[in-house]
């Protein structure tokens, strides 16, 4: 817990390992025992057939809510499933208290299908600034972490996004067509140009990890939900990358962004993608 006038940086210096343990335990207790073993009554729809939620999502979020709030008294938790039940709770991201931003199973459709492309996302933020993040791909036991100003790491090894290889098409993960409106699809059309190889994204968290590892060059996303983006954006930043909205300013987890936006391996790639999204390149 934060003691006396301890800062978030001081809290992280003492408790980053405890957060990691909570993330791993949530996956071990509530997610992985249900992977490839889900019963029909453990899967529900939210907004439609592509917007799924499972018992793993709900129970892992409850576990993390209890564990993280106990580690940092006075903090609040904004989780995807809790916000679905009570949309007003999302406003805590814009409040004064430290906030844990949680997506218990990012890539639920892949999880339901028995694929490996899902992860658990946790970020710690305050006043709109993300201070630390944890991205855990439980099926492959890969944990990526980032602390603002201290770099990004994958299983303890420093991550460097690097720059795209000259002359090769940019690899860009975009909002999946199943989750985009006609207007959003139109906004992304600028990426269908020579020199760019767009493809539909899977788990947003794993797409950010791919950028931070230099396996993908950029993302182009059309939605703002902080639980999908907060952890990954810090991971990319601390690996040397950057993020920009369509108006050329960084993405804000508090909302009000001009969409779509990009996270990219380097500033030049981010500007190129934003230019294509704006119809200027």
UniProtKB/TrEMBL annotation:
Catalysed transformations (reactions): a myo-inositol phosphate + H2O = myo-inositol + phosphate
Top-level class of the enzyme under EC nomenclature: hydrolase
EC number(s) on file: 3.1.3.25
One annotated GO biological process: inositol metabolic process
Keyword vocabulary terms for this entry: Hydrolase, Magnesium, Metal-binding
The keyword Endoplasmic reticulum appears for this protein: no
Entry's transmembrane regions: none
GO molecular function terms listed in the Swiss-Prot or TrEMBL record: inositol monophosphate 1-phosphatase activity; metal ion binding
Binding residue positions for Mg(2+): 80, 103, 106, 228
Keyword Acyltransferase attached: no
Cofactor: Mg(2+)
Database matches in InterPro entries: Inositol_monoP_metal-BS, Inositol_monophosphatase-like, Inositol_monophosphatase_CS
PANTHER family: INOSITOL MONOPHOSPHATASE (PTHR20854), INOSITOL-1-MONOPHOSPHATASE-RELATED (PTHR20854:SF4)
Name of the protein described by the UniProt record: inositol-phosphate phosphatase
């Amino acid at each position: 817990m934060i003691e006396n006038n301890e800062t978030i940086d001081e809290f992280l210096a003492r408790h980053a390992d405890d957060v990691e343990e909570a993330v791993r335990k949530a996956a071990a207790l509530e997610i992985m025992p249900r992977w490839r073993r889900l019963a029909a009554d453990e899967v529900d729809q939210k907004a439609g057939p592509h917007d799924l939620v499972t018992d793993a999502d709900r129970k892992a979020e409850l576990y993390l809510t209890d564990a993280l709030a106990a580690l940092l008294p006075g903090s609040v938790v904004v989780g995807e499933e809790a916000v679905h039940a009570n949309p007003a709770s999302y406003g805590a991201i814009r409040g004064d208290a430290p906030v844990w931003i949680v997506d218990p199973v990012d890539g639920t459709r892949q999880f339901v299908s028995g694929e490996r492309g899902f992860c658990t996302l946790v970020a710690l933020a305050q006043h709109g600034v993300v201070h630390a993040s944890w991205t855990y791909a439980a099926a492959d036991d890969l944990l990526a972490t980032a602390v603002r100003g201290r770099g990004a790491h994958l299983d303890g090894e420093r991550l460097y996004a690097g720059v795209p290889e000259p002359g090769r098409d940019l690899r860009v993960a975009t909002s999946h067509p199943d989750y985009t409106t006609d207007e959003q699809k139109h906004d992304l059309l600028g990426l269908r140009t020579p020199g760019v190889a767009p493809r539909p994204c899977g788990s947003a968290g794993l797409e950010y990890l791919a950028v931070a590892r230099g396996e993908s060059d950029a993302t182009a996303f059309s939605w703002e939900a902080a639980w999908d983006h907060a952890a990954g954006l810090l991971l990319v930043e601390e690996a040397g990358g950057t993020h920009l909205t369509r108006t050329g300013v960084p993405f804000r987890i508090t909302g009000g962004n001009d969409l779509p936006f990009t996270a990219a391996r380097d500033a030049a790639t981010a500007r190129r993608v934003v230019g294509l999204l704006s119809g200027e390149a």
